[in-house]
Fold this protein.
Amino acid sequence: MRHVIALDVGGTGMKAALAGPGGELLHQARRATGRERGPEAVVAGILDFAAELRAYGADRFGEPARAAGVAVPGIVDAEQGVAVYAANLGWRDVPLRALLGERLGSVPVALGHDVRTGGLAEGRIGAGRGADRFLFVPLGTGIAGAIGIDGRVEAGAHGFAGEIGHVVVRPGGIACPCGQRGCLERFASASAVSQAWAQACGDPAADAADCAKAVESGDARALAVWQDAVDALADGLVAALTLLDPRVLIIGGGLAEAGETLFTPLRDAVRRRVTFQKLPKIVPAALGDTAGCLGAGLMAWDLLAAPTASGTTATTSTTATPPEVTT
């Protein structure tokens, strides 16, 4: 069976799959990144994992993978195939596309940013399926975004498109590691809600999920924390929809797991803020933690479908040079 390799590399773990032509996941596997051993070990682990998947696919389906897609966090130069920087993984300027292509027998390899890759899957086969314009916003440790346009995700001129978490919604507010104060992710991410609720309830171990449960039970302190986060999120989202005019707004990540405890007040808050703007559908993400793998698989299939300058489909990858990795 024709298939591709899909890898989703996170800060602590890697998810991988063999994906069929319809985007279906034919085989799935997980592995730790091994980041405690340093960035060189992380890169080696990715290459080894991909090679094992290639061998498994060749044995099970009678032919090797036709292409590969990999999603990574941090700053990514998708056009050059370079993982530019990832604080959690400790690497810098890793030519990951070339390294993987060489390890996998010169198959074409696509490299993408983790959130944009997950957004690609949500837009094409998930909650945004059929929408010509969508915005995918996962609410996790931080907040990022993926801008979907006609079945693709916009990276921007320098690879920074969609960084909605660093839109300032509370000028002069909490300091953000990016250097600004009052960024959206300092108020409306899952980690921000966890921190605010831990302070409000006096339990250092309390998190956003605990806050959501307390909201459902009517706890006044939790309601105040939750509403502050919802209001900040609505302010950021209205700024985004004013600029982008999406047809569908897809909310994912850990905070979205609260379901209607989040979506009911969020829809109301956004509705109250819009004036001339068209109100998009606001829906939960549909693919969960498989979005990254599914998106990586879609990127790989796109490579096979894309014509080259000669009119044929892409079948080769560039030769790798050793990575520069720093701690």
